[in-house]
Amino acid sequence: MKKIDNDTYEILAPIDPHSHFRSPAQIGDAVFNVVVDENSRHYDVVYAEPNTFLDQSDLKHHIEHADDVLKYRTLLQERQKGFGGRASIRVLAKLTHNTTPEMIRALVQLGVAGMKIYPENVTTGSSHGGISDFFHRLLLECLRTCEELGLPVQVHPEYPGEFSMRKEFLFHRVIGTYCALFPKLRLFVEHITDRRTLDLIQVLSKKYPVHGTIASHYFDLTLDDVLGRVDNHCRPNPKEPEDREALILAATGGESCFLYITDSAPHLWKNKHLSDDECAGVFNPSRIAIPWTFEIFEKRNALHMFERFTVDNPSKAYGLTHSGREIRLIRKRWTVERLADPTGDKERSLTPFRFRKDLEWQIAE
Ligand SMILES: [Zn+2]
User: Fold this and answer.
1) Of 72, 209, 239, 353, which is least packed with CB atoms within 10 Å of its CB?
2) Strand 15-19 and strand 45-48: pairing?
3) Name one GO molecular function term (predicted).
4) Ligand 1: distance of its center to the CA of 19 in Å?
5) How many domains does the chain have?
6) CA of 8 to the centre of ligand 1 (A)
7) pLDDT tens column, 140-194
């Protein structure tokens, strides 16, 4: 990080190993283009989550097979070229009860970024292909294969069927058992919201290659911000102010077991506000997520830890080499607005994180 003056910094472009790009079949062509740009623009590397369908006639078919990863990666990279995007976009595949070790080997050959486990019915896109039996024989064989191949496995850490405020804590038993069964498995416990999970990761990471990721909207939101405000609805749901404080301390503390993510998860306005289906996720594009995280680190006198959290820790954990690309942040207050659909249709617009709130910093384009 280079401090040019009090109001200008040059930083290494962060790495975001957890973002939702959706697909043209899911949000339409024009909005998809907006999302590809907004979710990737200022990153060095960004990972696309696999809970999306590419074909309108087959909503239950997510990114699971080598073919799907190839198709999705090509689609994302082609769209990105259209606006000169520079981030390297990598794609994850969903680990379901139908996944086999052979499928995982084929995915690795194709350069998949990792596998993702969604417990059944805990979040968007987990009502099909979600895991209902965490210790099923075939699933354990797949995890053994990931361990042998050194393939990262991301997990959404919530136990199905439990009370929302306890789901994450009750998932600890699965994490602990996976570590004991597969001591070399590169496990990523995603978007921590419960302070007890931070403690668990700190302890486990001393012995196992386990990491915890922290999404920057949880530096802001608590349960009170979600009640009655569907734009802030996300899974796991934000918890208590004490959890939010613990997440900020973990991120700014610089420990190598904690990494930056956005979990940027756009939903069309009409789906968030008018649909009967649950639409969990906060849209947190790079031009909001990065200045917001920077603001938090500055307020905590922790700017010296910013690149550790957003670049060093993710690179090391995922075995990535940073390209050296830099972005410039300037101190200039601005107000976050809704992102219009290019056709001007409000129902197809996206409401981002910090909507109608101010940010202290912005990225110089
Ligand atoms: Zn996610």
Assistant:
1) 209
2) parallel
3) dihydroorotase activity
4) 6
5) 1
6) 31
7) 999 999 999 999 999 999 999 999 999 999 999 999 999 999 999 999 999 999 9
**Ligand 1 centroid – CA 116 distance (Å):** 10
Please give the C-alpha separations between residue 252 and each of 11, 154, 219, 256, 361, in angstroms, as whole numbers: 16, 22, 11, 11, 18
The token pair that represents 75 in the structure block? 């689609």
Range of the domain at 260: 2-364
* CATH number reported for the structural domain that contains residue 264 in this entry: 3.20.20.140
Q: How far apart (Å, rounded) are the C-alpha atoms in residues 75 and 97?
A: 26
Q: How far is the CA of 76 from the centre of ligand 1 (A)?
A: 17
